Amino acid sequence: MTQSNAKVLMIPVSSPQGIGEYMRSLIIAQALQAKWPSLDIQFVLNKHAPSAASCPFPTHLLNNSATKEKAAVNQLLQQLKPDLVIFDCSGRASQARQAKKLGAKVVFVSQHQKKRAKGFALGRLPALDAHWITQFKFVDGDLSPLERFKLRLFKKDAPIFTGPVFSTPAPELPVEFAALTGKNYSVWAAGGGGHQVQGKSATEEFYLAALEVATPEQPALLVAGANFTQQLPSTDTVTVVKSLPNVQLMTLLNQAALVVSGGGDMMGQAIVLGKNIVAVPVAKDQPDRVLACAAQGLIYPATLAKSDIVAQCHKALRTPLVAQYPAEPGLQIVLADIARLLALPTAF
Q1: Domain check: are 94 and 185 in the same one?
Q2: CA quadruple 284, 19, 269, 240: dihedral positive or negative?
Q3: What was the pLDDT predicted at 199?
Q4: What's the CA angle centered on 329, arms 328 and 331, to 5 degrees?
Q5: For residue 99, which of 1, 11, 5 has the smallest C-alpha distance?
Q6: Residue 322: its pLDDT value, please?
Q7: Looking at the domain assignment, is residue 45 inside a domain?
Q8: Label partner for 228 (CA 20 to 30 A): which of 48, 123, 208, 302?
């Protein structure tokens, strides 16, 4: 097998709640396929996650997320013998060691301090060939003295701070949203659609707020999320869609007058695009991240309450944010590192 025919196994966290890790893995997989079509790319997913039914790549289904399926994942690794395994915030140290033992290059992806610590765990670090940190450095901080010591101890390269990973926006809006061209529209997305805070659906609260903020001159597009199981009707001012391919979503974000997001991946993507953002923490790992971004003047923060979201949106529309956060495109950083790991025949 030549390296351009290498087998790549994507193992993201997958559940009926969030979808960020799967979407990041999908973005990377589709970019790999476009650049190196002969790569054999496969996914390992929780069969209960909606993404399991829609993944466009060959998929191996588990009864739970990979982290809770130690034996099943190790058996798959033994059966498939991949050349590269990418654990996106998922997996156990023993699974990383198994992949390494079988000859694979092993990558761990982390997006907050708790997951980052797993990448430095003594049982996992020796098995890693790369660690990608997708969080902004100002949120979780640079490497600590202890982390640097562990890298020296095991003679490992420092992790790469990739920042958010997303598709390059297209120059024009998708045909189905062409009516938004030239309008000061807003894009709303609470995340994967499964998030609840104190029994309150984040997506439903976003929808109620969008109904109050949107006008015929400033219409709203709400992306409910693949994990959202209810039905929300579109209105004259608010268009509701289930989900969008990332390149379409990024294109819509790039031309929006306002972005209203959860405190996950889309917030980071919108920050890199330099957008006017209202961000709402909708998961337990998001409040500190939202506050850190607000402290940098990159977002307007809000709580998951319709009145607060509406008030912050009106503030953002009156006084749009103009802060720019300098960042290299995370997807290109990731592709370059995969090319290095697999010695793929392309220069970046």
Answers
A1: no
A2: negative
A3: 80
A4: 140
A5: 11
A6: 84
A7: yes
A8: 302
**Residue 210 is part of which domain span?**
175-318
Query: Do the Cβ atoms of 84 and 9 come closer than 8 Å?
Result: yes
Rounded to an integer, what distance in angstroms lies between the CA atom of residue 136 and that of residue 230?
33
The pLDDT, as a whole number, for residue 1 is 43
Domains contained in the chain, number: 2
- Using CA atoms in the order 200, 201, 206, 212, what is the torsion angle rounded to 10 degrees? -60
Q: Are residues 209 and 86 in the same domain?
A: no
Q: How far apart are CA 192 and CA 23, in angstroms?
A: 9
Q: What is the spatial distance between Cα 38 and Cα 60, in angstroms, rounded to a whole number?
A: 20
Residue type present at position 101 = K
Taking the CB of residue 215, how many other CB atoms lie within 10 A of it? Answer: 11
Helices 20-35, 246-254: crossing angle, 10 deg rounding: 100
| Residue 170 is assigned to a structural domain of this protein | no
Give yes or no: residues 148 and 287 share one domain. Answer: no
Residue 304 Ramachandran class (φ > 0 left, ψ -120 to 50 alpha, else beta)? beta
Q: Is residue 323 part of a domain?
A: no
Identify whether residues 270 and 336 lie together within a single domain: no
What region does 198 belong to: left with phi over 0, alpha with psi -120 to 50, or beta? left
- In angstroms, the CA 202 to CA 190 distance is 6
Give the C-alpha separation, 275 to 251, whole Å. Answer: 12
Q: Taking CA 118 as the corner, what is the angle to CA 296 and CA 284, rounded to the nearest 5 degrees? A: 50
264 found inside a domain: yes
Secondary structure class of 279 (helix, strand, coil): strand
Question: Can you list the residues of the chain whose pLDDT is less than 50?
Answer: 1, 348
Instruction: Give, in order, the Cα–Cα distances in Å from 182 to each of 36, 101, 218, 241.
Output: 36, 55, 10, 20
| Nearest alpha carbon to residue 325 among 268, 280, 279, 281 | 268
DSSP result, 180-238: GTTS--EEEE-SSS--EETTEEHHHHHHHHHHHH--SSS-EEEE--TT--S-----SSE
